[in-house]
Each structure stands twice: as C-alpha cells, then as structure tokens.
Design goal:
five-stranded parallel beta sheet, 405 residues, elongated, alpha+beta, binds flavin-adenine dinucleotide
Length: 405
C-alpha cells in the first residue's frame, strides 16, 4: 500500500491528509506531530476564535494580500480559493460568519469547532494521527524517502512537509538532506515601538483611516491606526510590517515612518479645507474646531506639536501655520525603535524557496514525491484570515497530488 507521510499536524497537515485520503482512500495516510497536541496554532488563533479565511472571492485580489507568495498563490487559488474554504467547512457542519471587514470566523466563535471538524473527518477517513513523533531528517531514496526519528526510521513513498513557520534558520536543518534553498526567516506582522514619541500619551486613540509609509520607501500600510502604550498598532501598522518585513529586519527595526492622518488626502484639497474653515468659522478657536476626520485630541496634539496655540482663532492662523499643519497632517514623522510581536496573529516570512516548488501540485522540483504545504514555504499573508487560507489551499493541492496514482 502506498504510504503518504505528512510531517506536522497543524492546519496545512490536516488539510493535506484529508485531501489525500479523499482523493485516494486506498492509500495509507499518516500525520506525524512532534508535540503532544495537534493543531496547536489553530487553537490559539484569532484570539481563540480562528479567523479561517477572508471574504475576498476574487483570486487576483485574494493573492494581493500576500507580501511573499502572491504570484505563486494566484496560480494555486485556481484549484482552491476562499470560496472553496467556506464551502469546505460549511459542508462539514461548521457554520461560518463573515464580519464587515471581510474576516470569516466560525459562528461558534470557538477555534475548537475547526479542530473538532478536522479530528472527526480524519477519524472517519481512517487517517493515522501520531503524536510525539518529530521527524529529525528526511533522506531521499530510490522511489521514496527514509524518515528519521529519534531512535528509528521508517519508509514512506511520498512525503508532505507541513512543519509551519520556523523562527530560526536552524528550524529547517532537518530538511538539509533535501538540498532545498531556504529563504532566511524573519518575523512579519508586528507593531511599532516608539519609546521617545509623546504621542504614546494618547494610548487607546484610534484613527479610522490612515496611511503609513516607511521613510525613503514606497511601501504603504492603510487602514485603522491605533495608538498604544508602546507606540502604534492596528491594521495599517501590521500591514506595513508585513510588506516591509525584510527591509525592516535589515534596518534592525530602527526607522522613521510618515503618517498621513487623512488616509490618502492630497495637498490641494486639504488647503481648500483650510481656506473654507477660515472663511466660515474664522471666529472660532483652532482647538475647538477640528474640520478633519480625526479625533479632537489628536488635532489638538498636532497643533501643539507644531507650536500653534489652540486658543488662537481660525482667522488668525496665518500661511506659515497652514503650511506646517498641511505637512504634518499628510507626512507626520515618527521614529520607530524596535517592534512588539502582535500576539493575535503572527507569522514568519521566509522558508522553502517557492522557485523550487510546482505551484500546480506543491511538489518539489528537486525530488519527485516530496511536497510542501503551509507556512514552511516562503509564503505569508497580512492579517485577516489570509495565512490560514494559504495553508488550506496549499494543503489541499499537496494532498490531492501526493495521492495521485
Ligand atoms: C497566535 C497566533 C494566532 C494566529 N491567528 C491566525 C488567524 O486567526 N488567522 C490566520 O489566517 N492565521 C493566523 N495565524 C497564522 C496561522 O496560525 C499559521 O499561518 C498557520 O497555522 C500555518 O499552518 P501550518 O500548518 O503551515 O503550520 P502550523 O500550524 O504551525 O503547524 C505545524 C505543525 O508541525 C509540527 N512540527 C514542526 N516540526 C515538526 C517535525 N520536525 N516533525 C513533526 N512535526 C513537526 C508543529 O508542532 C505544528 O503542530 C496565527 C498565528 C499565531 C501564532
């Protein structure tokens, strides 16, 4: 009987195993998990709720959410996309709910619903699930692979590697016999520390739509921005941290950002707002009349930051102050010194080089019969359910193709 060994009992591992067994029920499909429990990350994901995917049902738009892996996944989504994920879970009795930001969670709000679904499905299909069985090396042989464990080894005809993201390069050492190129791992999805910026006093303050740039770079982060005790967080920051993961690691997390507090607003329209406000509300105090869609506390902070008296009147603002405020509203500079892991969802950039994997089958271009799925590959998404979607898609494809006769 053909044996498919799946290395790693996480999101991609279970999806691959189920896909393989459905494709070919006669094959012996086994999941080897190093730790004492399966699906550990699924359990803690999304604050215990598991953001399973995102309601982005156009493959091109879906792929645009991956700082690493966009082109590769665009091809892979042709076989299994976000719509397929929704259908996959709902057809197995896991009701899902879509939130206004597109994030999709189990209706139960419990990641355990997803875990129960995988465990039940594996049982029904006859997948062997083995705990405390870490693979230390995979040796390619003629017509198969030798899997090395602590004290013994086993043969497998086909292998799917689904060990997840590895924070250190040494985490990939067990793959060394396979001679795949490993893109060195770096954290992605983190928040910015600003120990010397007084804006931290406004912790808890939210700007609904801001745009962030790394000074000297073109990369953008857009969306809600949250001021925290440490600096800045929120979707706009997390997005920028993901797109800039490599650049920011090279800078050792010492860099400056430029904030456009008014999302994408441009200078001419902003100057019109200043002129209009002076005309209509000239007698009002600057601090009392905030014509912009930002919190009043932030507006007052920006006035003070630019040495403008909030008790002066709009009519007296003067061209010099308008210039200062225009610049500050569109390009407000903050010094970032360090990062904090975003605990709700964090991933590592880096992993097995995608140029050595076939995106239509997830099979290694170096070793026929060897497949990869999930975060072990150099794929990572921004927050919003995209990382699990990549695990489901690549797991589905790897399992299906590994099980072909
Ligand atoms: C706190 C947190 C919250 C998250 N929340 C979300 C979310 O809500 N939505 C989202 O889309 N993404 C989320 N993510 C990201 C998501 O969890 C990962 O992208 C996803 O789990 C990757 O799946 P995977 O199967 O590739 O790896 P994993 O889920 O990490 O599974 C890999 C498995 O392989 C095992 N393993 C490792 N080495 C070996 C070995 N040598 N032998 C045998 N077994 C081995 C590991 O123990 C692990 O069980 C979150 C991540 C974190 C850390």
């Amino acid at each position: 009987m053909t044996k498919i060994a799946i290395i790693g009992g996480g999101a991609a591992g279970f999806f691959a195993a189920i896909s393989a067994k459905i494709e070919n029920p006669d094959m012996d499909v086994r999941i080897y998990e190093r730790t004492s429990k399966f699906l550990g990350k699924v359990k803690i994901s999304g604050g215990g709720r598991c953001n399973v995917t995102n309601a982005t049902f156009n493959n091109r738009l879906l792929a645009a959410n991956y700082p690493r892996g966009e082109k590769f996944l665009k091809k892979a989504f042709e076989q299994f996309n976000a719509q397929d994920t929704v259908q996959w879970f709902e057809s197995r009795g896991v009701a899902l709910k879509t939130y206004p930001d597109g994030c999709i969670f189990p209706l139960s709000n419990e990641s355990q619903s997803i875990i129960n679904c995988f465990l039940a499905e594996s049982r029904i299909l006859g997948i062997q699930t083995i705990l405390h069985r870490g693979v230390d090396a995979i040796i390619p042989l003629e017509g198969g692979f030798e899997l090395k464990f602590k004290e013994e080894s086993e043969f497998a005809d086909r292998v799917i590697v689904t060990v997840g993201g590895q924070p250190k390069s040494t985490g990939f050492d067990f793959l060394s016999e396979l001679t795949h190129t490993i893109i060195s791992p770096q954290p992605s999805l983190f928040t910015f520390n600003m120990p010397h910026e007084s804006i931290r006093e406004f912790m808890g303050l939210v700007v609904e739509k801001a745009t962030l740039r790394i000074e000297g770079q073109k990369l953008l982060g857009q969306g809600p921005l949250l001021i925290t005790h440490w600096g800045m967080s929120g979707p706009a920051v997390l997005q920028l941290s993901a797109w800039g993961a490599r650049i920011l690691a090279d800078k050792e997390y010492q860099f400056a950002i430029l904030v456009n507090w008014l999302d994408q607003e441009k200078e001419p329209t902003l100057r019109e707002t200043f002129a209009e406000t002076m005309k209509v509300h000239g007698g009002k105090m600057l601090g009392n009349l905030n014509p912009f869609p930002i919190p009043a506390r932030l507006w007052n902070f920006l006035l003070t930051k630019n040495s403008i008296d909030p008790s002066s009147r709009w009519v007296d603002i003067g061209q010099k102050n308008i210039n200062k405020l225009v610049n500050c509203l569109l390009n407000d500079r903050y010094r970032v010194q360090g990062k904090t892991t975003f605990k709700e969802e964090f991933v590592t950039a880096g992993g097995v080089d995608l140029s050595e994997i076939n995106p239509h089958s997830m099979e290694s271009l170096r070793h026929p019969g060897l497949f990869f799925a999930g975060e072990v590959m150099d794929i990572d998404g921004i927050t919003g359910g995209f990382n699990f979607q990549a695990a489901w898609t690549t797991g589905f494809i790897a399992g299906k193709h590994a099980a072909l006769e």
